[in-house]
Specification:
The complex is a heterodimer. Chain A is mainly alpha-helical. In chain A, 70% of the residues lie in helices and 0% in strands. Chain A contains six helices and no strands. In chain A, helix 2 packs antiparallel against helix 3. Chain A is globular. Chain B is built from three helices and no strands. The longest helix of chain B is centred in the last third of the chain and has 31 residues. The radius of gyration of chain B is 17 Å and the shape is elongated. The relative contact order of chain B is 0.13. The chains are: A mainly alpha, B mainly alpha. The interface between A and B is large, with 85 and 72 residues.
Chain lengths: 178, 100
């Protein structure tokens, strides 16, 4: 059962990822990425990460992709062919480099972890996955957690500053979207 | 029972596809989506390691990656919008602000 779900979702994840990078329409790319996120959420369920599977769907497939689609609609979907080569030999070199990278990664995984079994999370998830994660987050990882809140507010303010429309004279702020 | 190396190999494939997307595409938005794909591949690796070792630390790390990715997307998309306002294009070939 686990095997069937794994291979179905692996095919779905790889297929949607390939579709994403080769789709000429940006909206199609975004849709493929949503499909990829759902496949990965199922993977997280298989790996006993129940909380993160739901967070994956809510944050990635929900919030982040809506933001992406907002920006795509804001900029307008341009159908210009964006797969053309602008640097000489860029496309063949990119394929060569990625093939080498993939071979290296797969070889490393095979060499290092081929015989390692899963220990399983029955013990760590005994009181529930969310409870275990929350306990760890608010004791051992409390300082990184607090720094994350700082990061989020800096990102929100930064996005507002960067996205603000400048007045033509650069001195007087416009009224329309102040 | 599927071995951890199958999950790790899948994560490696997804990461490589993300790298390929960054190298091939000229649209800044698609490059950004490829970066998201790479972040997700790394998350899958972390969660696999968490189950392999029998502790939840990998899942906590993946949680932080998701939070940082959300912040990164907000700032990155704001930069793309600002660039589009200036150049009327979302192609990285037109982003030559230091050149004239």
């Amino acid at each position: 059962m686990e095997r069937v779900v794994f291979y179905l979702m692996a095919i779905g994840a790889v297929g949607s990822a390939v579709w994403m990078i080769f789709a000429t329409n940006t909206v199609h790319s975004a849709l493929a990425l949503v499909a990829n996120f759902f496949a990965l959420a199922v993977m997280y369920l298989l790996l006993e990460a129940h909380f993160l599977a739901i967070v994956q769907i809510i944050v990635y497939a929900g919030a982040i992709m809506v933001l992406f689609l907002f920006v795509i609609m804001l900029l307008g979907v341009d159908r210009k062919d964006s797969l053309r080569e602008t640097i000489r030999f860029q496309v063949p070199l990119a394929y060569l480099f990625v093939a080498g990278l993939l071979g290296l990664l797969i070889y490393t995984v095979r060499a290092a972890f081929d015989r390692t079994p899963f220990q399983g999370l029955q013990q760590a998830n005994a009181a529930g996955n969310t409870q275990g994660l929350g306990r760890l987050l608010f004791t051992h990882y409390l300082f990184p957690f607090e720094v994350t809140s700082l990061l989020l507010i800096v990102a929100a303010i930064g996005a507002m500053v960067i996205g603000k429309r400048r007045a033509p004279s650069e001195t007087e702020p416009e009224d329309e979207d102040a | 029972m599927i071995s951890p190396s199958a999950y790790l190999a899948l994560a490696a494939i997804l990461f490589s596809i993300g790298v390929l997307g960054v190298l091939l595409r000229r649209n800044a938005l698609v490059i950004f989506m490829s970066i998201e794909l790479m972040l997700n591949a790394v998350n899958l690796t972390l969660i696999t390691f968490a189950r392999m070792r029998g502790t939840l630390d990998g899942q906590v790390l993946a949680f932080f990656v998701i939070a940082v990715a959300a912040a990164e997307v907000v700032v990155g998309l704001a930069i793309i919008v600002a660039m589009f306002r200036r150049k009327q294009s979302a192609s990285v070939d037109d982003a030559r602000l230091f050149k004239w």
